[in-house]
Every structure is written in structure tokens, then in C-alpha cells.
Amino acid sequence: MFGALLLTATACGGGGNSAAGAGDGKGKDAGKAGSEQSQAVVTIAPKNGSKAVDTSGVLKVTAAKGRLTEVTVQDSKGHQVAGSITGGGATWTPSTHLAASTTYKVHAVAKDSAGLTSAQESSFTTLTPENTFIGNYTPDDGSTVGVGMPFSVRFTRGITHPADVEKAITIKTEPAVEVRGHWFGNDRLDFRPKDYWKAGTKVTVTLDLDGVEGRPGVYGKQAKAVSFTIGRSQVSTVDAKTHKMVVRRDGKVIKTLPATTGKPGYDTWNGQMVISERLAVTRMNGETVGYGGEYDIKDVPHAQRLTDSGTFIHGNYWGGDAFGNYNASHGCVGLRDVRGGYDGSVPAAWFYDQSMVGDVVIVKNAHERTVAPDNGLNGWNMSWDEWIK
After folding, report:
1. Which residue from 114, 149, 201 is spatially nearest to 380, judged by alpha carbons?
2. Closest of 340, 263, 255, 262 to residue 307, by C-alpha
3. What distance in Å separates the CA atoms of residue 235 and residue 195, rounded to the nearest whole number?
């Protein structure tokens, strides 16, 4: 229809010239030129009116006997699909996947060697998937976090097309820094820079998963933007040999606290660990971590999680004189506290008040291996070369 309108407009122009040139012989030639049709042929796949179209690998626009000069693809809300013309104008393909259950309209124009244009339009609707997945992510939108915080996504289905899923997640930072993703298994994808974030960095993540085929027949149904800010830098180092923790804020020591770590046979992990959860009070039961019957404390104060396997840095009101002197825990880092956690001046309360999710706690000189990078948000224990491999 669009092409017909163009041709009608051209013919009307020729008729006008013919009338204006009546009596001088020029009008007849102008009318003849205006009636010429473009030799360019535009082809759009899928065909007009197609239903249940796959969200990737199907949409394509081509030109024969001419070259494409314009291609616009947009959904019913006017959102355009990015794409590029290649092959000297022979082909247009989208640079991203399409959303599911969406109607798209295509408008394409091509020009032949004589400069005459031809247009084609089409409309189609993408499939509605029976099986879907989303990504549960951390940190939360709008949050302020510590310099060790990765952006971590745990998918509700195992992903067998990881490149397509990772391509659909984009991260922009201010100031700019390279951020790369790393897969832990087939259901978790973490993003981080080479080194800890710079304090004050603003991070925006776009999850454009709607329509991405994560595994055969299973499509993403999530389209969301998430923003978070990196707060001040706080990195604390626990020395299991000296039984002390040094707290550094923006590179400067602000406090040294007596601590206790895992006793022989229950040694604390070494390595860089990121605070992933903060609980003013919690129950710690040895049953949940394979130490059945050894302890069950219902009111552990000022607890901050360091690993998924149950390592915390927390207040300890039962440790006697262990703090600063010897290691007495079942693998956690303990700081002196009072029962009920009411005294804000004790080390555990002070550290809890000074901390946030994403802060780094480093343990060294423990008689244990380095914590696994996927045990918590602890990808910093992997070299950059390993991370981007």
C-alpha cells in the first residue's frame, strides 16, 4: 500500500509537469518518466500476518535489484527493534531477539540503480511460550552496597544457551568500567569488574530477557532495569593467627577489633568474602550445616552472612576470653557481644552498625582452603583471567 502511494504521488507530479508544459512538447516526456516503477524488490520474512513466530532467527528483510535504504521494525507501543543493513544494502537483520507474545510492524524501502524507490510493509506476531524462566537478582533496585558487591542472577531454569542469555543482560556504569559476566553452573551468572568497585559508582543493569530462548522451548519473560550505587569502601581483614580484625574505610584503618575464628577441625575459610545478608538477631543450629547436636543458639546477635554454606561474622556473648586470644568457633568469625545485643558499644554491635551488604571481609592465616568463588558472592577469589575465560 505504501509503495502504491509513492507511485501515485510520482504520477501526479508527472501530470502536473505535463499540464505546465503544454504546447512545448515537454509534458509528454515528463509523464512518461513519472510512470516508471522501481525495479527494486523488497522481501520481508516472516510473511505478513504470520503467527507464533520464533523470537530469534526468523526476522529478515532483503532487497533484490536494488539496495535497502530504510528498515523500521516496531511493536505496538512504538518501541523500535535495533538492526543493521549489511551486504551493501542487500540484507537487514535485527541485532537482538524479539519479545514474546508481541505484534511487530515492518516498513522497508529499497532503491534501484535508477534512483527509484520501492516500499514494503508487513506485520507478524511472535509466539506465546508454554515454559518460561526469570532471573532472581541481587542487589535490589535502588540499593546502596559495598565495593565487593557483584550483580548476581540466579535463573529459575537451567540455561543451555548461555551466550544468548548473557547477551540480553547489559550493564552500564558511571564512571565507566569494564564489567564481565561469569557462569557458575547453568543457573547462575555473576557480573563484576576486575577490581573492587570504586566508591560512588552508579550501576544500571538492563535485563532484556523477554523472548530469549534460554533452553529449548523455554523462554525468558522478564524485562526490567535495575540500578544501584556503590557506597563508601570498607574492607576488613581478619587474621586467624593474631585473632584480630582490621577495619579499613576508604583505605584508612578506622578500627582494630579482637576476634575469634574456627577452632581446629572447624577452621574458617580463607579468602575474600562479601557480606550478602544482615540479621540483627538469628538462630544458628548446627543441624543446618552438618554439625548436628553441637549447638543451637536461638538469639545470635548482629549476624552478617559471608557464605551460602553458613559462614557468618556475628556477635558472640558466650565466648568468654576467646576474642583476641584463641580460635573457638565452628567456622564463623566471632566478635564480642552481649546477650540481646543491646549494648551498641561492644565490637560486634559497632561493626554491624558500620557495615552494609557488599562490604568485604578477608580472612587470612586460617588452616583451611580458600573459599569457593560460588559459595556466596565470593567471585573475587577467582583471578580475572579465570573470570573472563
Report:
1. 149
2. 262
3. 13
Q: How many helices (H) and strands (E) does the chain have?
A: 5, 27
Q: Please calculate the CA angle 261-265-267 and round it to the nearest 5 degrees.
A: 30
Mean pLDDT by runs of 10 across the 389 residues of the chain is: 36 34 42 73 98 98 98 97 98 97 98 97 98 98 98 98 98 98 98 98 98 98 98 98 98 98 97 98 82 82 97 97 97 97 97 98 98 98 97
Assigned C-alpha cell, 96 = 537482538
196 grid coordinates: 573492587
Residue 21 is which amino acid?
Answer: G
Q: Is 253 exposed, middle or buried (0-12, 13-18, 19+ CB in 10 A)?
A: exposed
Q: Could you give the CA distance from residue 54 to residue 101 in angstroms, rounded to a whole number?
A: 10
Record the pTM: 0.86
Residues 338, 305: contact at Cβ < 8 Å?
Answer: no
Residue 122 burial (10 A CB sphere; 0-12, 13-18, 19+): buried
The answer to whether 300 and 282 are in contact (CB under 8 A) is: yes
Q: Which amino acid is at 51?
A: K
Listed in sequence order, the residues at least 6 apart from 69 whose beta carbon sits closer than 8 Å to its beta carbon are 89, 109, 110, 111, 117
Are the C-beta atoms of residues 222 and 135 closer than 8 Å to each other?
Answer: yes
